Amino acid sequence: DTEGRQLIKMLDEYVEDRSNCIVYTSLGQLRYLSTVALVDVVVGNSSSGILEVPSLKTATVNIGDRQKGRLRADSIIDCEPITENIKESIQQAFKLDCSTVVNPYGDGNTTERVLKVLREINHPERLIKKHFYDIDFEYS
Fold it and tell me: What is the pTM of this model?
């Protein structure tokens, strides 16, 4: 989107003269989550800040109302897309203790729990609602 391209341009200009800054368009899932686990605050308007970041015990500053209606962990600070509000929210986020935050979307171990239940089912065929009927026919 247009605003996204403008933001990327501004970030590129910002890091141009700063040797201690790097901008990545995408880190990929593993690098992103590994990075989030190492930082104190994630700032933006992505669903990741709401859904994933709390599980890594990291604060989120959520800018704007793009994620309106989603459940919030106590580690999430919402703010308006106004410079002063963003600055204040970041300062507030640095003061948060996220070590005991509970993610309302789960702990990331749902797949393991589902597999455990499925493995314990005595008659898994009972879970199948549709049955396949093999029909004899010739094709020429």
Answer: 0.72
